[in-house]
Amino acid sequence: MPNIKSAKKRMQLSAKARAHNRSERARIRTAIKRVREATAADVGQERLREAVSLLDRAATRRLVHPNRVARIKSGLTRHVQALA
User: Fold this and answer.
1) pTM, whole model, 2 decimals?
2) How far apart are CA 61 and CA 46, in angstroms?
């Protein structure tokens, strides 16, 4: 446990940021899962748009590495194209 006031504040902010980041990653995982569960091309296309938006935002904020985001987007796009 920190004794210095600034260290205590930093610890609180880190905990808050960690909780937010975890929830954002969970939203991304859920969006990816929804795309993969799509059976129709039009539904898949709509869900892909939502997932790509979340992924791009996460890459911009460095929540997820941009190269990983590119890989995921590529795979999801191929999946949706296969449905068509």
Assistant:
1) 0.86
2) 23
Tens digits of per-residue pLDDT, 40-60? 999 999 999 999 999 999 999
| Domain boundaries 5-83, corresponding CATH code | 1.20.58.110
* Burial (CB count <10 Å: 0-12, 13-18, 19+), residue 20: exposed
Measured distance CA(69)–CA(7) in Å, rounded? 33
| CA distance linking residue 49 with residue 31, whole number of Å | 10
Distances (CA, A) of 33 to 62, 69, 72, 74: 21, 15, 11, 15
For tokens 């791009």, the residue is: 56
Do 35 and 51 meet the contact criterion of CB atoms below 8 Å apart?
A: yes
